[in-house]
Amino acid sequence: MKVFKITESVTKYTFGKPINTEAVVLTGEECFRDSLEFLKVKYNQELELDYDMNTQDVIWGLGENQRGMNKKGGIYESFCSDDPRHTPDKKSLYGAHNFIVIDGDNKFGVFVDYPGKVTFDIGFSKKNKLKIIVEESNVDVYIIKGKSPKNIVREFLGIIGESYVPPKWAFGYQQSRWGYKDSKDIKEIAEKFIENKIPCDAICLDIDYMERFKDFTIDKDAFPNFKGFVKEIKEKGFRLIPIIDAGVKIEKGYEVYEEGIENKYFCADDKGEPFIAAVWPGVCHFPDFLNSKAREWFGLKYKFLTDLGIEGFWNDMNEPAIFYTPRGLKEAVETAKASEKENLDIHSFFALQDVFSKMANNIADYKGFYHNMNGNIVNHYKVHNLYGYNMTRSAGEAFRKINSNKRFLLFSRASYIGMHRYGGIWTGDNHSWWEHILLNIKMMPSLNMCGFFYIGADTGGFGSDANEQLVIRWNQFSIFTPLFRNHSAMGTRSQEPYSFGENTKEIITKAIEFRYALIPYIYSEYMKAINNRNMYFMPISFEYNDEMSRRIENQLLLGESLMIAPVYEENAVGRYVYLPEDMLLWKVRDYRNRKYEVVKKGHNYLNVDFDEIPLFIRKNKILVLGKSSHNVESLDSAELNVIAFVENEANYIYYDDDGNSYDFKKGKYSEIIICIRKNNEDYEIEVKNKGNKLVKKISFDIVDVDGNIIKKIIYL
Amino acid sequence: MKVFKITESVTKYTFGKPINTEAVVLTGEECFRDSLEFLKVKYNQELELDYDMNTQDVIWGLGENQRGMNKKGGIYESFCSDDPRHTPDKKSLYGAHNFIVIDGDNKFGVFVDYPGKVTFDIGFSKKNKLKIIVEESNVDVYIIKGKSPKNIVREFLGIIGESYVPPKWAFGYQQSRWGYKDSKDIKEIAEKFIENKIPCDAICLDIDYMERFKDFTIDKDAFPNFKGFVKEIKEKGFRLIPIIDAGVKIEKGYEVYEEGIENKYFCADDKGEPFIAAVWPGVCHFPDFLNSKAREWFGLKYKFLTDLGIEGFWNDMNEPAIFYTPRGLKEAVETAKASEKENLDIHSFFALQDVFSKMANNIADYKGFYHNMNGNIVNHYKVHNLYGYNMTRSAGEAFRKINSNKRFLLFSRASYIGMHRYGGIWTGDNHSWWEHILLNIKMMPSLNMCGFFYIGADTGGFGSDANEQLVIRWNQFSIFTPLFRNHSAMGTRSQEPYSFGENTKEIITKAIEFRYALIPYIYSEYMKAINNRNMYFMPISFEYNDEMSRRIENQLLLGESLMIAPVYEENAVGRYVYLPEDMLLWKVRDYRNRKYEVVKKGHNYLNVDFDEIPLFIRKNKILVLGKSSHNVESLDSAELNVIAFVENEANYIYYDDDGNSYDFKKGKYSEIIICIRKNNEDYEIEVKNKGNKLVKKISFDIVDVDGNIIKKIIYL
């Protein structure tokens, strides 16, 4: 064991010879320690970390995962998995995020930096035993200290490097569906949004835009003049966001295939031949994203699309998902052929069914190919969780070469900590299940803890058929997530905002308008969270220290001013909300109408009709708000609306920047610093403008603890 | 359309020539009406019933089904299905229960008596449209009127005949697991219960007790002297409950097979040959339970086991479940053989996977066999939902021949209304998912509405691995369900009460003890519910008329005195509870310790530690309670404990009978009628004993609305 002091609060313990995942950007200095803090460690073939939890301990983290924000009770396996039917018993989802925070008498974070399978048994096998098992003893374990979970997260965000920042337009609404097959379909979608006056910034292109599912090609029948079409749609106010898949079709003459073969850029099998597995295009090779040259090569392929006017992408199938390999298919077919007698015994029958059902994403296949990491040949299975990460890194690094000061939109399905510097994520193929709204809510702060800020789920659910209520309630939550995309699978019921009745369309439209009106706050909080290493979404106990706050699994703090309490149950027209202090409630039907109510600290039952979105403004906090428009670029920023709930003094820094470049990193951003101070019956307002040239007027609704409203206007 | 007046409140509308399902026991007299009340009807090939719901309408019913007690938002297909992975998108579960109650400005019930597929689209396709689609126009539709849902249910229970009554011992705890393979295993289980002093009445035998899964055989290696073993185990205090499967193994010389062939008692294929499909024993034939002679024949086969001392059974695989047929297997293998090229296109690949994954319970197979119903040859698909019903009827009718005045325990997986007269049900192969505890809670009153009273779920979950908390919380709910059985699948984590740590064992044991102490109340309420056509479990709005009560999906009324509010969320040590009136809370850790608290009407947050079971006694209601023991027969009934929450007057009828015979139907039962009347600072207690010879003493805890307790004792 070697020990490194990374920062004052972070120590790294190195066992064996870990593969450098580049999750952490700081190296630190070697120091001496003969044992780990907090954890018992055992290692031989595997490495095991043990901790005795108290009954009251809460365990936060693990990013994209099942169960509660409090991960207690579960067993989790970090192993990026394409499992669209992720029922509660599934242990692995699309991402692998090995960071947890123990929040008890001891408070500390653990990051297990190992790119293969890591198991977190958090009170599953024994109710108060935390056990982390790493499949090999080559691993870096980071222990992060801090006086509170919030501080521990800040320390952790400090060592993994700054999170991805998308262009501002990416905070607009995105419409997607696997099944929009050609320019006619896309145009029709665009027209529907325009006709129905529903704000929207982008339409995603799923696999059908490509020629036979080949990356960096366009199906010319579906899109005869793609470049012209991109321009035409952009003039209507929408950007197109094409999908890029990990697998490269094996096809003679196809440039990406030919170049990959020529330069040995594909992952290889045990004979050194390009590894073969089938995904959408049929049999494919897989770019070796862990090979820096291959990564650079593939990334620059995106230029084919950026040259056509594309400014955003989603990287899919990069766990990597495998439908089948020749090995698996052969095994299955042979088993089937051997079953050609009528009275198959029942165990043979189940074995036969299994061999077909388990052909996809089979561990034997993951163990059957290799990466070339700077000359070292590494079995894929051991570095599995780095694949999607490095595919997205490949694109992210290329964008800086393609246009060094332009932000591109990029989000990925698979991920590992480290990838958060290059792109966002969506939470994979969920379902139109009410349970998956709640899962969506719970995942958000856990992902923030692991560095992922540009995040969101497939609103309305990807698989299964949605009903109106569910699409309404899911949109009413997703308006708060940085990535706000309605996406669904081919063959499921349509769930665009206008796909249901008039009343449902109206409700969803009002919700989306509210999102656009919230963008000044959302963008400001997003950017400040990243710049100050705060979280955008937090469990409420990260701010409030009472015992009850630690139990709340269905409310979130959003930025520094808001608390949200989404409705996620069928037929519910109300819900319970716990308030750790008095807050100001605004039930939003139409963001233009403001009606506030002071809700008292404690347990409350809230009526929430189908067209209502409850929003809580914390005490002595400020919400800034603008006006909706048809897309982000057309937002009118001349007037800012402030809603403040003030007992004595509230402060807010409203951040803004150009939304497109990285100039903010050089200090080119603006701030409007607002301070409201109660002064007898009135308020003193102080506004300092540091460089904002758009806002001309700020209208204030200041509400006191008794619910009295004072309105003020300040011109800048 | 023909119309029949069944009772004052029930009208039957007959379309075409329906098959007589015998769900309803009354025939009524023909009368004239030219249209249905409430519903619009369209028919041609299909029959469609339409109703425009109001937003506030609640739709109750549908028995064993997904989603809420309020069925709004869902689409449901009545088609008994063996689907152990029943995620929220699944439309069919194991039972088919076509009764709903519309609870709005109009209040009425609808029972669609059709034994094939019926679809209930309850605001799924359009949020306020109720649409019922029957696949053919040969159907009886019953419209049931009443002034409240409770009255409508009572009317409905009146036309479908009296529900099944099990022996009293069946209200004890049952331990089960697929995987207890022989007498040694069973004995070990029994010993563990004895050693740990955990009350238990029965141990279930899953498929392994049989010789190669053949019904009415005993594996002689596993149970060398079965009769002796049954006796031995019974002397230790436990009954054995063997499973009976629907499929009969094709095996020359096997009596059941030979007799079935000889007498043409098996379902036939389209050539008139016995239909072949594989289940646990490999290829099987299926007794034609719709043929009255075959039904009688199969039922009397149970005598093989009753002669060995068996007094209870569970009927399984009777949807009927089909793993594969020669047709399906051949199709799959042929598809596999045709796929023997490496670059399978992706659609062919999915088709290949599908043909294997969809081999089980395939509609083509259900359409491929026939029943002989009194000489009429009927395709199985059209009467699919009658199969499990008539298998259980087969046993139920036989028991009356085997021993006419003895109650046998009998519960089934598949069911249709009508079967409620012959046996209970368990809710099929659920999972160790928290979501399935909630589903369990919601199903219970819906099943009562459809006549099923002896009901319960696999406590702890059948599939997937359970953790300690989940098993604790599930047991804490199941102590209230008439069927209380812990059951799990082979290969999953063990979940017997003693399988976890000492503390968990203690908590579950205390919960089971509480169950046994509650048996006086549970049995009394069960019997009175059946005799008076009331429900045992009710949504709280069936008793309370306020708007909020209609929204509550996670609390139940249990009998006439209690309300329960189970905890069903991971890590939760509290929950919200809505009280429509003041109630008396008893948080039960150990039923021997009584501490009460008056909880005020309205919304309440309740702390509920892992070892606590919150129980609410309604105002002016009485709970009767006994003492726990190791099994039901050994319960000491000499002392009855009464806990009463009295504002002015509370009345209770404590019912009891011999627990074993049907003499209660001839009036041979006892009642103790208790009346407690507040009289200034004191209470008048009146106790009338109508024939109870066991109770000698009643101890009273009488609590007033301020929480003051008065203790009294009355000797009988």
UniProtKB/TrEMBL annotation, chains A, B:
Record-annotated DUF5110 domain positions: 640-692
UniProtKB keywords: Glycosidase, Hydrolase
PROSITE patterns assigned to the protein according to its UniProt record, in alphabetical order: GLYCOSYL_HYDROL_F31_1
All residue ranges annotated as the Glycosyl hydrolase family 31 C-terminal domain in the record: 538-623
UniProt domain Glycoside hydrolase family 31 N-terminal: residue ranges: 44-121
Hydrolase among keywords: yes
Domain Glycoside hydrolase family 31 TIM barrel: 164-524
Record-linked Pfam families: DUF5110, Gal_mutarotas_2, Glyco_hydro_31_2nd, Glyco_hydro_31_3rd
Classification via InterPro entries: DUF5110 (IPR033403), Glyco_hydro_31_AS (IPR030458), Glyco_hydro_31_C (IPR048395), Glyco_hydro_31_N_dom (IPR025887), Glyco_hydro_31_TIM (IPR000322)
Family stated for the protein in its record: Belongs to the glycosyl hydrolase 31 family.
Protein's name according to its UniProt entry: DUF5110 domain-containing protein
Organism encoding this protein: Clostridium mobile
